[in-house]
Amino acid sequence: MQMYEGLPIATNKLPTKERKGIPHHLLGCIPLCDAPWTIENFRRRALDVIEEVRSRHKVPILVGGTHYYVQSLVFQDSTLGETAGHLDFAEQEEKWPLLKASGEEMLEELKKVDPTMAARWHPKDKRHIRRSLEIWLLTGRRASDLYREQGQTGAISPFKDVENTSDTPLRELVSASPFNPLVFWLYSSPEDLKARLDSRVLAMVKAGLLAEVTAMHAMYQTAKAAGQSLDRDK
After folding, report:
1. How confident is the model at residue 32 (pLDDT cuts 50, 70, 90)?
2. 125 pLDDT exceeds 80?
3. What DSSP designation does 98 have?
4. Distance (Å) of CA 24 to CA 9, 34, 58
């Protein structure tokens, strides 16, 4: 979410003054009027940034975030990006109009082809529902089957627990990476994490979260009145 413009408080973007002059890439780089990014969009842009940073003999630091996106860069064959093709957002919708439907409508179709994945998603979770359908439409195979196969072959699977993400030792996954990365995995107990999250939310409210959300809603209403289309599921 931090890659999209706007909502710096809600998405917890690091304030410029706290970056201490260190360049932070891809924050707020996607205009709200653009189609939502796929994992392939992210991977291509991130690889470009990594190449540019390394060309200056600097060390890029990848901080995340969503594990699925991090894995697409650090570990080979750990996501379904290659398997699921490279059609962009608009091309997919043109080929399969179903992907323009509401989350509820797409979920009903997903129940028919992949009930295991359908059971994971809330009807309003349009982004995840769509992704599961995309995999079916692009590959002709159920996402749930592909994820399980990844787990069996040592690739990282969303069906595995965080503390045991793979049957393959982490050092072997890293050795297959195109970068030779040094990986730091930070762990926090659920109790400590909950306390930190509660404190973070209170700090966000104090910093102006409600005013920020109100302003974003007003911007959406203005765009809607002008006939512009903004995707609220980003």
Report:
1. confident
2. yes
3. G
4. 16, 21, 13
Q: Is the pLDDT of residue 55 over 60?
A: yes
Contacts 24+ apart (CB under 8 A), 200-203: 200/12
Instruction: State how far the Cα of 56 lies from the Cα of 49, in Å rounded to an integer.
Output: 11
Ranges 31-45, 122-136, 148-162, most confident: 122-136
Cis peptide before 151 (omega within 30 of 0): no
CA 63 to chain centre: 13
The Cα angle at residue 50 between residues 77 and 155, in degrees rounded to 5: 15
Strands, E, within the chain: which ranges? none
Instruction: Please state, in angstroms and as integers, the Cα–Cα distance from residue 133 to each residue in 15, 102, 116, 144, 203, following that order.
Output: 36, 13, 12, 11, 37
55, two tokens: 């060309």
- The DSSP call for residue 73 is H
pTM assigned to the model? 0.65
Q: Secondary structure of 80-144 in the HEC alphabet?
A: CCCCCCCCCHHHHHHHCHHHHCCHHHHHHHHHHHCHHHHCCCCCCCHHHHHHHHHHHHHHCCCHH
Q: Is the pLDDT of residue 181 over 90?
A: no
Q: Which SS3 state, helix, strand or coil, does residue 4 take?
A: strand
* Separation of alpha carbons 173 and 170, rounded Å: 5
30, β-bridge pairs: 4
Smallest Cα–Cα separation from 2: which of 30, 27, 39? 27
